[in-house]
Amino acid sequence: MRIDILTLLPELLDSPLGFSIVKRAQTKGFVDICLHNIRDCGKGTYRQVDDYAFGGSAGMVMMIEPIFTLMEKLKAERDYDEIIFLTPDGERLNQPMVNRMSNYTNLMVLCGHYKGIDHRIREHLITKEISIGDYVLSGGELAAAVLVDAIVRVMPGVISDETSALTDSFQDGLLSPPVYSRPEEFNNWRVPEVLLSGNHKLIAQWEEEQALERTKLLRPDLLKE
Ligand code: 6GU
């Protein structure tokens, strides 16, 4: 899978994409993540990327030309399954959407500024708008890091123990059961006996119950869907 990320702040993404599972997935060749600085396609000697808004509202607007130029260059090289704009008024990201996108071959992700992007970009160039939750971030970069991390970790083979991404919270529509490690007792706080029993059938049953109970308690909305 190839992911092209268009941004004015590529440095903001270096660290989130440069560690742990996302880093390993790139090293192993499961995913090729390319950061493109929109300013490289900026207009004129000063590589201008934003301009005043028509109508006089406050703040700068990301111009259409640099983004169009960069997108056309990339689109000439490959066909994209989706061209995503990250914005708080997009469709709210969830696990089924992530799973679907993990099967794509080429994904383009535009990070912009919610208030300041020429609307014609959204009308004519974007195929999907995604939000990561009901709050506002300064720009799409942190949302892109969230999106890419979520996609990469469910790609087959990325997580060594294949079942481990499949047992994540939300993969079966439920929250995950609690987990414990040694010591069996700390400060008089004991690990649930059933987990020490060695009875795998009982343990699986307990984990299922816990998942359901925790979902009822913490996220009843997930059970209503
Ligand atoms: Cl995708 N972008 C921005 N700027 N803010 C957000 C968001 C995205 N999702 C939630 N808040």
Task: Give structural notes.
By secondary structure, this protein is α/β, with parallel strands linked by helices. Helices cover 37% and strands 19% of the residues. The protein is built from 9 helices and 9 strands. The protein has helices at residues 11-17, 20-27, 64-77, 95-101, 119-124, 141-153, 163-166, 200-218, 220-224; strands spanning 2-7, 32-37, 50-52, 60-62, 82-92, 106-111, 128-131, 185-186, 189-190. The strands form 3 sheets. The protein has a 5-stranded parallel beta sheet, with helices on both faces. A two-stranded antiparallel sheet has the order 3-4. The protein is elongated, with a radius of gyration of 22 Å. The two termini are 31 Å apart. The relative contact order is 0.14. 6-chloroguanine binds at residues 86-88, 114, 130-133, 135-137, 139-140, 143.
SSE blueprint:
Elements: E1 2-7, H1 11-17, H2 20-27, E2 32-37, E3 50-52, E4 60-62, H3 64-77, E5 82-92, H4 95-101, E6 106-111, H5 119-124, E7 128-131, H6 141-153, H7 163-166, E8 185-186, E9 189-190, H8 200-218, H9 220-224
Parallel strand pairs: 1-2, 1-6, 5-6, 5-7
Antiparallel strand pairs: 3-4, 8-9
6-chloroguanine binds at residues 86-88, 114, 130-133, 135-137, 139-140, 143.
